[in-house]
Amino acid sequence: MSFLTRKQAEVLFQGQTLLILGKLPDPTNPSDPAYSYVRVEWSTKGQPGWEVEQDVVFLQCITVDDPYNKVRENTRTLDEGGESFTQTTSYTRVWQVTWNIYGPNSFETARAIRSGLFNEDNAAGTILPDADGDPVLPFGQLALNNVYFLPDVAEPVRCPEQENGQWWERVDFSAKFNELVQEISTVQTVESVEVITQTAEGAVVSDVTITGES
């Protein structure tokens, strides 16, 4: 099967956002501050978890209903030997990615992310090397994950948020992406079928077995 889990989508778009903002982390340092700048999880301790003057980006990935994702295309390929066939079901899943952007530069950050989504070079992505120069960490690369940006994106919305007597600067916006999904299954073929004909009284008139070679 070929599809993204929610966690995989979050990691993909976290990398895409860091790439657009030019804040690629050190791939050898899992504690690099870049991962705290673009986050895929909210604090669970009941506090904001960052300072009011700090720039922080949260992103959420969900699938949404769309007329386009109701279309299914099925193809079947007979396997060697003829004892089974592979069925591939292809369809489009629609992701909605929402950026909740906090901090004094939130409006400018939202503009940069929105503008960067239209840049095909960002969609192609990049791969960071490790200390030995070997590729270890891909960023962006939407197309390689069968994800494609839908360019109908609304403008970011400024929505300051009050928390503990303070106003936190916040800007939100969303974008949609199509993901090509393929679900693959193997189905056994029918080797033979027995056909029996009877009279109304139940007497057998004929008993024929039909095989694939018949």
Tell me what the structure shows.
The structure is a single chain. This protein has one domain (about 5-210). β3 (about 75-80) and β4 (about 85-100) form a beta hairpin. Strands 1, 2, 3, 4, 7, 8 and 11 form a seven-stranded mixed sheet that branches. It is built from four helices and 13 strands. The protein is about 15% helix and about 40% strand. It has helices at about 5-20, 35, 105-115, 120-125, and strands spanning about 40, 55-65, 75-80, 85-100, 125-130, 135-140, 145-150, 155-160, 160-165, 165-170, 170-190, 190-200, 205-210. It is an alpha+beta fold and about 210 residues long. The longest helix is centred in the N-terminal third of the chain and has 16 residues, at about 5-20.
Concise synopsis of the structure shown:
The protein is α+β, with helices and mostly antiparallel strands and 214 residues long. The chain has helices at 6-21, 34-37, 106-117, 120-124; strands at 38-39, 56-63, 73-78, 84-102, 126-129, 135-139, 147-150, 157-158, 161-163, 166-168, 170-188, 192-198, 204-211. It has one domain (6-211).
Domain tally: 1
Helicity range: 10-25%
Low-confidence stretches: none
Structural class: alpha+beta
Question: What's the layout of helices and strands?
Answer:
Elements lengths: L5 H16 L12 H4 E2 L16 E8 L9 E6 L5 E19 L3 H12 L2 H5 L1 E4 L5 E5 L7 E4 L6 E2 L2 E3 L2 E3 L1 E19 L3 E7 L5 E8 L3
